[in-house]
Amino acid sequence: MGKNETLVQRLFEIIKSAKPEDIEKSIAEAKRELAETSKQNRKEELFKLFDTQLETLKDRGCPQTILEAFQRQKGSVVAKASEMDIPEGNIAFLPVIPKSYGSSRLQMPMVKNGNQVGYTYLDPNSISDVVDTPNAPYFIFNVEDGQSMRGKASQDADKLIKKQNRRGLTDVEVVALGIHTDVLRNHFVFAIGSRYESGGVVFLWLCSDEPGLRWVSLGYADFDRGAASCGK
After folding, report:
1. First to last CA, the chain
2. Which residues pair with residue 95 across a beta bridge?
3. How many other CB atoms are found less than 10 A from the CB of residue 98?
4. Cα 58 to chain center, whole Å?
5. Mind listing the pLDDT tens digit for each residue in 199-223?
6. Of 231, 144, 142, 232, the residue nearest 190 (C-alpha)
7. Considering just the CA atoms, what is the radius of gyration of the chain in Å?
8. All structural domains of the chain with their residue ranges
9. What gap in Å lies between CA 174 and CA 152, rounded to an integer?
10. What does DSSP say about strands 138-143 and 127-129: parallel, antiparallel, or unpaired?
11. Where are the alpha helices (DSSP H) in the chain?
12. Which residues pair with 167 in a beta bridge?
């Protein structure tokens, strides 16, 4: 006898003498309790994710004032993420250090691959954003790491991402992705929310296992690279 048949038999024994209206009420109440339990479990997972991300930043030398700014947002971030429909494989949220608190050049040493520490020779003054971002430490939600856009040129990925009502990540947001995930072990990441000089796009990659931030033309396409995006 299969598990479903056993379950049906047990349920039948329990409800066979109950009134139909009582059965319906009991089933509805059970569903509500299951939904509430699932929601609470989800929140606990999100709280753990939040704590892990801040611990990572602390271990990698993030200034205490920035950590405190993130910490103050804990309740609201978890509450917001718990109400969102986040597809499997996407990251619920990521903490982002804005340029006003430190350029991507200053943040790159927090990106690591084993014992290798991130670097960039890009001039921060030559990087500009084409999307609006906060000036204080903030979070981005429902983050797709670029896997779905692999092989697409930045300008083409940008159009597809906008059709999905999402937006591409900036250079510091891609750095945040590199700090908190192992994305570079799978593919490199375009930051299509930023531009370098007049028409280049910034990307995060590995060079001889060392994380680096470089730039390339918007029309460049390579299956090893994909444009990351977020929902909020």
Report:
1. 48
2. 139
3. 17
4. 19
5. 899 999 999 999 999 999 999 998 9
6. 144
7. 22
8. 3-230
9. 17
10. unpaired
11. 3-15, 20-59, 64-71, 74-82, 104-107, 154-163, 171-180
12. 230
Tens-place pLDDT, residues 4-22: 667 667 766 666 666 676 6
- The size of the chain, in residues, is 232
Average pLDDT over every residue of 60-68: 97
Integer CA distances (angstroms), 179 to 14, 183, 217, in order: 53, 9, 25
Classify 117 as helix, strand or coil: strand
Tens of pLDDT, residue by residue over 74-126, are 999 999 999 999 999 999 999 999 999 999 999 999 999 999 999 999 999 99
Q: Which two tokens stand for residue 77?
A: 């971030």
Please give the structure tokens belonging to residue 41: 């479990």
Helix residue ranges, H only, 92-151: 104-107
Rounded Cα gap, residues 231 and 84, in angstroms: 10
pTM reported for the whole predicted model = 0.84
Gap between the Cα atoms of 75 and 47, Å rounded: 9
pLDDT of residue 133: 96
Helix (H/G/I), strand (E/B), else coil: 213: strand
Q: Return the sign of the alpha-carbon dihedral for residues 91, 128, 66, 77.
A: negative
Encode pLDDT of 130-181 as tens digits.
999 999 999 999 999 999 999 999 999 999 999 999 999 999 999 999 999 9
Tokens of 50: 């939040």
